[in-house]
Amino acid sequence: MKRRLLSLLVSGALVVPAAMASDAGQVLNPVPGEKASVAVWKDDKAKMNAFIDDLLAKMTLDEKIGQLDLQSGIMAVTGSQVNHQYEDWVAEGKVGSIFNNFTYERAYPLQKRAVEESRLGIPIIIAHDIIHGHKTIFPQSLGEVASWDLEVARVGAEVAAKEATADGIMWTFAPMADMVRDPRWGRVSEAPGEDVYLATKMSVARVQGFQGDDLAATDTMAATAKHFVGYGLSQAGRDYHSTDISDHELWSQQMPPFKAMVDAGVATFMTSFNDLNGIPASGSKYLLTDVLRDQWGFEGFVVTDYTAVNELVPHGYARDDKHAAEIAFNAGADMDMVGKSYMDYMKELVQEGRVSEEKIDHSVRLILEMKWRLGLFEDPYRYFDKERAERDILTEENLELARDAARKSSVLLKNDNAALPLNLESIESIALIGPLADSKFDMIGNWAAAGDRRTQPVTMKEGLEARLGDSVAIHYAKGATYAHLHDEEETSTHIGIRSVARDVRGKPAHARMIKEAVEAAKKADVIVLGIGEEQRMSGEAASRVEITLPGTQRELMEELKKLGKPMIGVVFSGRPNDLSWEHQNLDAILHAWYPGTSGGHAIADLLVGDYSPSGKLPMTFPRSVGQIPIYYNMKNTGRPYNAENPNQRQEHYKSRYDDSPNTPLYAFGHGLSYANFEYGEVKLSSETLTMDGELTVSVEVTNRGEHGGEEVIQLYTRQMVGSVTRPVQELKGWQKVHFDKGESKTITFTLTAEDLAFYRADMSWGAEAGEFQVMVGTASDQVQKLGFTLVE
Ligand code: NOJ
Fold first, then answer.
1. 550: cis peptide before it, omega within 30°?
2. Could you check whether the bond before residue 629 is cis, i.e. omega within 30 degrees of 0?
3. What spacing in Å lies between the alpha carbon of 281 and ligand 1's midpoint?
4. Ligand 1 centroid to 307 CA: how many Å?
5. Which of 70, 72, 75, 78 has most ligand 1 atoms within 8 Å of its beta carbon, as the pocket-test mutant?
């Protein structure tokens, strides 16, 4: 092996890492007697700085610019540009990091080329979008948030990191912390929902799960806070669209998860595609430097989104790619994803004095620091271990954790006449019907990294068969189509191109499918539907103007309804859908999101009552698309509508619709259980709270049902009068607690003035004295309200 890196280090370097790898598995120790462990020197900043100073001094300008470039392999492309020469560029030192190119077979040789062929042998970072699992796929991110269980989020990320690093990936582009209010936007499936408090906690838990407490450990990976910032409010739910967000809104609703991730030590940030108040986020010095670095003290590096630098041109913010590179880099975007504008123009920009070499050195330093922290200078091959890939991926334990996460994430939206759990004493046969009842392809949702879609995922049909054996007959029929675009086409997915051979062969085929389903249903005691959206209908570049269930699913359900049998819908989808028809016509609805590799087992657990549903909605479900944006923490308006007023004439000139209630179909925080939770009277320790005091809020909750189960007890507040108008409700705390049958527990929350702090009229942060309401309950629309006063 040509040990370029090693010779670089041994020749003039003052500081050398303790151990250098020569090849996968074999470790050299260039400094006899000094065999420091990674843990010892990972935090040794002085040693790291000396090493990087030395390395920087040896680098040419071209080599430095190379470190600023990130290129994509061909595995999960999300833009029109791919540069197929990327492997040679790695060998030439023109590219410092790679994504969409993983597995031992693909990534190890590339690292070898970087280390052995490039002049300085600087290792590359290998990245991939590890969003909700690597090969063991956990529930779609939004679904995982519906668990309201930080441990579910942390463990999901931890398992993902363990598996991804075993496949040679050391950097993930997650968590996505874009706050969302528009279910038309396909990317809500990747988001942490509409509530900033819940999203902040979940995002931090994910960072902790990915990164652990030691980035150099071979089973942890660098995380990315994305997309900074505002992307979640893309206008009209159309992907990549503009955003216009007031300062109050930006700082109260969009910034907090990002700031919290900086505080939690997130390794990197990704810019967002949108323009924000007229400035594209990828070229915003205010966001990337003034806020992120100067105000928040972020110490990692910033990567742009895919070709986002070049996109400053169509945004109308840069004249050409060279100008775009100048703007983005000077704004604070250290690394350019795919677009090559740094690669092509940075040298000229330096020579022309439009970019300073000091600034280049600074960005390169941040990237090299990350390489150091990942342990790559100690051993560039530390993440390539074939045995680990075989040992750590898709293990029984991981599959079981994914099953548990899916159970905890599913939300029981409706359950009339205790239609669920299925009564196995009286049911002899089930009709299992619908396009998602047995679709492996869809179970793992979008952005499913290296998840296998063909054999591994367990469908609802398989899960029920495994659980019920011969005790209950299952009559299956697909029954409907669920396509929304063209009926037959080649479609690009995040794991490549797949050829879609659909069932749509015109009307006769629909009729035949429905007939088969009706025949199956006639034989059964109960109908269980697997309905929803194809997985590709949410995720990136997957916006919809209609959010009802697509294809011929409605027609199917209308026909089945005529049989008069109990109908239970299990919905698989990455977004809040308009389920108004289903709400009126089905007896029970379980929202399973895309539940992941073990999803079918988890759903069977829930349907038969082995486990009680405990998920709560992280996003409001509208009655119709016309209500969007609809979210629970709205403002009151000057003319709030009162649906309870018996004299509705008085309510005419109020903030309302002529053709729909204002209220959603299912509110934020909604989710039923097989247990029956009774809330006692909410009690406050005092009617006043001082600025440095505490207020205790307590409530006794009793499970009066026949099943044990978990409940999410939610705490909200409202500031009645503020120096800026305040939301009608804001989540300030929750507790997820298990109750056995008949069990009572007193649940206690503590509120302080800091919990009531917000961005005041002058944008200062703090609480204001005055009247407040505190609300406690099982969902945002089912709370008890009490008043208290915050006093100076
Ligand atoms: C574009 C997406 O917006 C971003 O979230 C993702 O990480 C990159 N593509 C890389 O795949």
1. no
2. yes
3. 15
4. 10
5. 78
pLDDT in tens, 173-189: 999 999 999 999 999 99
Q: Which residues line ligand 1 (CB under 6 A)?
A: 78, 129, 173, 226, 305-306, 540
- Report the C-alpha gap between 354 and 348 in whole angstroms: 9
pLDDT tens across 604-645, in order? Answer: 999 999 999 999 999 999 999 999 999 999 999 999 999 999
Amino acid identity, position 180: V
Calpha distance 276→267 (Å, rounded): 24
The segments of the chain whose pLDDT lies below 50 read 1-42, 485-505
**CA pair distance 196, 198, nearest whole angstrom:** 6
Question: Is 305 a known active-site residue?
Answer: yes
3-class DSSP assignment, residue 689: strand
Please choose from 178, 305, 310, 337 the residue to mutate so as to test ligand 1's pocket, defined by most ligand atoms within 8 A of CB: 305
Asked whether 279 and 317 are in contact (CB, 8 A), the reply is yes
Long-range contacts of 148-152 (CB under 8 A, 24+ apart): 148/198, 148/615, 148/616, 148/618, 148/712, 148/734, 148/736, 149/408, 149/736, 150/201, 150/202, 150/205, 151/205, 152/404, 152/405, 152/408, 152/409
CB-CB neighbours of 241 under 10 Å: 16
- Distance, in Å, from the CA atom of 349 to the CA atom of 326, rounded to the nearest integer, reads 7
Task: Looking at the CA of residue 224, tell me the nearest atom of ligand 1.
Answer: 7
Instruction: Provide the residue count of the chain.
Output: 792
Walk me through the domains of the chain, giving residue ranges and CATH numbers.
Answer: 55-389 (3.20.20.300), 410-608 (3.40.50.1700), 625-791 (2.60.40.10)
- Catalytic one among 182, 275, 305, 442? 305
Q: Provide CB contacts within 8 A for 657, sequence distance 6+.
A: 626, 627
